Every structure is written in structure tokens, then in C-alpha cells.
Amino acid sequence: QVKSKQGGSPCKEKHVVLLSPVGKIEISGCETGVHEIKLPKMSVLPSGAESSVACEVCEGAEEMTEPLQQCTAWLRAYFCEPATTGTLPLPAFHHPLLQRDSFTRQVLWTLLNDVKFGEAVSYKQLADLAGNSRAARAVGGAMRSNPVPIIIPCHRVIRSSGDTGNYGGGHLLKEWLLSHEKLQKEKLA
């Protein structure tokens, strides 16, 4: 089915489901780029054993567009061989929010480029980095509307108090992602 995003030609959207250590991640996108990554809502965290689960595409593999292939390859690396994510191409994004010029977009790009694996920043620090130190609240809004979580690592944005703060996938998932990165980073060190 063809859904037209406001402005521009309609996209032929494809959907892929990636079975990851934290559950099923749904990814949608077209030939031009990735539209959205939907995280599973987790009420329980996978234990160590499950987190070594191989990452594989369990639905939609046969008709993946290039951006979707790059996206699943990147996510697989993120979970299984994080040292390699730096060498992989980031998929193109094709979500209206990332096309239009806005503070939200600025914040998301800043986060993508400046906050590396295993690091964390506060909402205020990210506002600073994005060029408006008084916009910590707006940063929170930008994180909530992030269409491509994990790749744009909104889980690395925490409260100044050190509290993890909110997360679209739930705070358990946020904590899991942060501890996954910490452990992997220690392994690499």
C-alpha cells in the first residue's frame, strides 16, 4: 500500500521485523530511507543468556530496500558486535521530522554525531551542544519524537541527577541499552 507523506511523492513502504536481544524491533522504510524504528515495550528485561541471541530479520527479509538492509545490519552490529558500528554506513532516513529544518532535527543530528557508544549526556548538555543551552525541555520533546531510536541514541540522554529519565521503549529498555553499552565498552577497552 502507498501512503503519501505530506509533500513529496508517495513512498512505497516496506516493513521489516528484527528479532533482537530485547525483543522484536519493527522497522519501516522506503527506497529513499528509513521511516521509523519501533521498539518493543518491555516489562521484563532479557537475562544475560537471551541477550546473546543472534540478531536476525524474522519478517520482511525478501523485499528489503537498501536503507532497510543498512538499518538492520547496523542494529545487528549494535547488539552483537558494537565495535563495528563505527565502520558501517548509517542508513538514509526518510521521516518528515528529519527532513524539515527545526530545533528537533538539530538536536537529533547533534546526538547522532556527538554522543558516542557508551557515553551519556544530560538534556541540558545536549541542548548546549545543539546550540541552545536554555532548551533542555525542548530536547526532551525531541527525544520523544525521535523516529529512529537506537541509531539516533536518545537512550543516552539522561537527567542531570543521573536518573535515567523517560524513554519511549520504557525505562527498563533504556537501562538495558545503557548497561549493554557500558559492558561492551569495557570489553573493548
UniProtKB/TrEMBL annotation:
Enzymatic reactions: a 6-O-methyl-2'-deoxyguanosine in DNA + L-cysteinyl-[protein] = S-methyl-L-cysteinyl-[protein] + a 2'-deoxyguanosine in DNA; a 4-O-methyl-thymidine in DNA + L-cysteinyl-[protein] = a thymidine in DNA + S-methyl-L-cysteinyl-[protein]
SUPFAM superfamilies xrefs: Methylated DNA-protein cysteine methyltransferase domain, Methylated DNA-protein cysteine methyltransferase, C-terminal domain
Matching InterPro entries: MethylDNA_cys_MeTrfase_AS, MethylDNA_cys_MeTrfase_DNA-bd, MethylDNA_cys_MeTrfase_DNAb, MethylG_MeTrfase_N, MGMT_N_sf, WH-like_DNA-bd_sf
Matching CDD domains: ATase (cd06445)
Example GO biological process: DNA repair
Domain annotation Methylguanine DNA methyltransferase ribonuclease-like: ranges: 19-91
Enzyme class, broadest EC rank: transferase
Pfam (any one): DNA_binding_1
GO MF annotation list: DNA binding; metal ion binding; methylated-DNA-[protein]-cysteine S-methyltransferase activity
Enzyme Commission (EC) number: 2.1.1.63
Annotated localization: Nucleus
Alphabetized PANTHER family for the sequence: METHYLATED-DNA--PROTEIN-CYSTEINE METHYLTRANSFERASE
Cited NCBIfam families: ogt
Sequence similarity: Belongs to the MGMT family.
The protein's name in its UniProt record: Methylated-DNA--protein-cysteine methyltransferase
Organism: Dryoscopus gambensis
Organism ancestry: Eukaryota, Metazoa, Chordata, Craniata, Vertebrata
Recorded name of the encoding gene: Mgmt
